[in-house]
Amino acid sequence: MKSRLWIILGIAAGLALLTWALWPAALQVETGRVSQGRFERSVQEDGKTRLRDRYLVSAPLTGQLERVTLQQGDTVERDQVLASLRPALPDLLNERSRQEQRERIGALEALLARAQTQVERAQAALEKTRADLRRSETLTRQGFLSPTQNETERLNLRLREKELEGAEQEAHAARHQLDQSRIAIRQFASGAGQASARSWLIRSPIGGKVLKIHQQSEGRVQAGAPLMELGDPSRLEVVVDLLTEDAAQIRPGTPAQLSNWGGPDVLQAVVRLIEPAAFTKVSALGVEEQRVHVVLDISTDLQYWRSLGDGYKVDVRLQVQAVEQALKVPVSALFPSGTRSALFAVELGRAHLRQVEVLARNGEEALIKSSLGVGSEVVIYPPAKLKDGQRVRQLKAR
Question: Is the pTM of the predicted complex or chain greater than 0.85?
Answer without folding.
Answer: no
